[in-house]
Design goal:
Blueprint (H helix, E strand, L loop, with lengths): L28 E2 L2 H11 L7 E4 L7 H8 L1 E6 L2 H11 L4 E6 L7 H6 L8 E2 L2 E2 L1 E6 L5 H10 L4 E9 H8 L9 H9 E9 L4 E2 L6 E8 L2 H4 L4 H13 L5 H4 L6 H6 L13 H10 L3
Parallel strand pairs: 2-3, 2-7, 3-4, 7-8
Antiparallel strand pairs: 1-10, 5-6, 8-11, 9-11
Bound molecules: S-adenosylmethionine.
S-adenosylmethionine (SAM) binds next to strand 1 and strand 3.
Protein name: Ribosomal RNA small subunit methyltransferase A
Subcellular location: Cytoplasm
InterPro entries: KsgA/Erm, rRNA_Ade_diMease-like_C, rRNA_Ade_Mease_Trfase_CS, rRNA_Ade_methylase_Trfase_N, rRNA_adenine_dimethylase, SAM-dependent_MTases_sf
């Protein structure tokens, strides 16, 4: 039992963690050992890696990662979890806790600001590796936030709703292919790793989950001239996905611009691939 039980904290369980999961914070705590081991294996930390976990919760992934790697930064928004997490981490390694909304954490600054100047550095600068069983209500905003800092991130291993992972990894012609697929695949390689059943969590979510690895691509490999133009074209194209591109993108360009970019004006967004979107956005970038 932890010593520091302050009045505003909920009742604490024997391990010092609050017993009630908070739905509004997307708290589904992982307890299935085999799944935790598979996540740690998938992350496979190497000496010098700078691991950052989003939403450590009660430490299901945190402690095994600390045991394996010795050092970890975590970002947690729930203040009731901060103290027990820090206390419990003492025996496992060095834990740095950032008590903040992850959407307000500047990953680029985090990558730039540390004491590691040696083997952790990538050729293009210092980078972090993100890990997390994400709060499902925030998974898309977190993914887009990470994309904004993609050059500071060497890879991401995330647990998400399986349906979201399917969307992220799908291609043209697939009914779940959409904005998330194009945005993620433009900036990262997306590799679904394994599915996780609801029973692996407490409380159990209603849907299957899946673990996915995202590896940001080098900016020159991506070839997008203007990220905002690209984001707008993709958003508008899928905003009216049943319309032809000529109609869906009428605020952005006309049929001749589509033709000039090699994109059929009568095609729909769900029929064209990431390279088509990049070519079109670049053609519209002055
Ligand atoms: N990693 C733990 C596990 O696997 O059992 C907990 C995962 S739980 C699905 C999501 C975690 O994200 C919770 O601990 C929750 O408090 C935290 N969280 C929710 N919103 C957050 C935010 N905006 N910023 C940081 N953490 C957040």
């Amino acid at each position: 039992m932890t010593r520091n039980r302050h009045s505003s904290a909920p009742s604490l369980g024997p391990d010092g963690f609050a017993s009630e999961a908070k739905k509004h914070l997307g708290q589904n705590f992982l307890h299935e050992r085999t799944i935790i081991d598979k996540i740690v294996q998938a992350v496979n930390p190497k000496p010098g890696d700078r691991l950052v976990e989003i939403g450590p919760g009660q430490g299901a992934i945190t402690f095994p990662l600390l045991d394996r790697h010795g050092e970890l930064t975590v970002i947690e928004f729930d203040r009731d979890l901060i103290f027990p997490l820090t206390e419990a981490a003492r025996a496992h390694g060095t834990l740095t806790v950032i008590h903040r909304d992850v959407l307000k954490v500047d990953f680029s600054a985090l990558a730039a600001d540390d004491g590691h100047h040696g083997e952790a550095s990538s050729p293009s600068g210092r980078t972090i590796r993100l890990v997390g069983n994400l709060p499902y209500n925030l998974s898309s905003p977190i993914l887009f936030h990470a994309l904004d800092h993609a050059t500071a991130i060497s890879d991401m291993t995330f647990m998400l709703q399986k349906e979201v992972v399917d969307r992220m990894a799908s291609g043209p012609g697939n009914k779940v292919y959409g904005r998330l697929s194009v945005m993620l695949q433009a900036y990262c390689t997306v590799t679904p790793l394994f599915t996780v059943p609801p029973g692996a969590f407490r409380p159990a979510p209603k849907v299957d989950s899946a673990v996915v690895r995202l590896v940001p691509r080098a900016p020159e490999a991506i070839g997008i001239r203007d990220r905002e133009v690209f984001a707008r074209v993709v958003r508008d194209a899928f905003g009216q996905r049943r319309k032809t591109l000529r109609n869906a993108l009428s605020n952005v360009c006309d049929a001749s611009a589509l033709e000039a970019a090699g994109v059929p004006p009568t095609a729909r967004a769900e029929q064209i691939d990431v390279a088509d979107f990049v070519r079109l956005a670049n053609a519209l970038t002055t």
